[in-house]
Amino acid sequence: LILRIKKQIREQLSPRHVPAFILPIADIPYTINGKKIETIVKRIISGEAITPSETIANPE
User: Fold this and answer.
1) Among 4, 12, 30, 54, which is most buried by a count of CB atoms within 10 Å?
2) CB within 8 Å of 57: residues ≥ 6 apart
3) CB atoms within 10 A of CB 30
């Protein structure tokens, strides 16, 4: 699946846009308003601790 994703990106955009790594995940954290919380995603990838927040719609 990862190879197919990278191939599609390479063909439809350019080799420069292919990410170095792709991680399969169960869910992306969103705010109650439906916006992606990119800072939490970056912290998860970096292995940093995450503090629970009341603004997260799907904290699990």
Assistant:
1) 30
2) 29, 30, 31, 32, 34
3) 15
